[in-house]
What we know:
- By secondary structure, the chain is an alpha/beta fold.
- It has a single domain (about 5-200), classed as Rossmann fold (3-Layer(aba) Sandwich).
- Helix content is about 25%, strand content about 30%.
- The chain contains 6 helices and 9 strands.
- It has helices at about 5-15, 25-35, 65-75, 90-100, 110-125, 160-165; strands at about 55, 60, 80-85, 105-110, 130-135, 145-150, 165-175, 180-190, 195-200.
- Strands 5-4-3-6-7-8-9 form a 7-stranded mixed beta sheet. A two-stranded antiparallel ribbon has the order 1-2.
- Helix 1 (about 5-15) runs antiparallel to helix 2 and helix 2 packs across helix 4.
- The longest helix is centred in the middle third of the chain and has 13 residues, at about 110-125.
- The N and C termini lie far apart (about 40 Å).
- Bound molecules: S-adenosyl-L-homocysteine.
- S-adenosyl-L-homocysteine (SAH) binds near residues 60, 107, 110, 135 and 153.
- S-adenosyl-L-homocysteine (SAH) binds near residues 89, 135, 207 and 208.
Amino acid sequence: MKYVFLDxxxxxxxxxIRGRGIKDERVLLAMESxxxxxxxxxxxxxxxxxxxxxxxxxxxxxxxxxMVALMSECLELCGDEKVLxxxxxSGYQSAVLSVLAREVVSIEVRKSLFLQAGKVLxxxxxxxxxxxxxxxxxxxxxxxxxxxxxxxAACECVPDALPEQLSEGGILVIPVGSAFVQSLLKIRKVRGxxxxxxxxxxxxxxxxxxxxx
Length: 213
Ligand code: SAH
């Protein structure tokens, strides 16, 4: 039988996620259900449930489990939302969002990661996720508006297109700051105005501008 890291996943949820204050039961269940080890390179599988980000190739990383849970909780998902993710990477955050929302569009600028993430998400049956190849700093107009937008790469400032593509009452979660450290912001659109709340400091790989190969 295939080893599925059940104990590792449960202890990740209890110690790293619930233990650090994540309360949204839907988020906790989603984190328990998604097979994180399927989203990391084979040689990293044994480390998949460790309390840190891991390299996924091309100088990019799969975020630390706690950060995935925290950002997911910030999105306040009930299950009927359309979500845009900028920075598909491994596809792990997309899978977690897939469980929590109605529909997920995830955009990735690096072709090899776009292809690999699409393959894994398909294989695992996350049918409500569409992965798109492109520059997410422009959002993804074809699918707009979105009830929620999550950016998983560091931005110097909020790209204009993202608040523009957010629905009324929507939430944008985005790391904003320098290349070395950012502030994770939760931005809510209320009657056309944007209300910003800093959540924590964080470190993400930088958002690329323009196409990459
Ligand atoms: N959410 C991912 C984390 C990925 S790291 C996960 O769960 O694994 C950030 C990702 O953003 C990288 O894959 C990087 O290639 C991608 N990225 C960087 N700039 C981008 C841009 N302008 N548009 C789309 N994706 C971008």
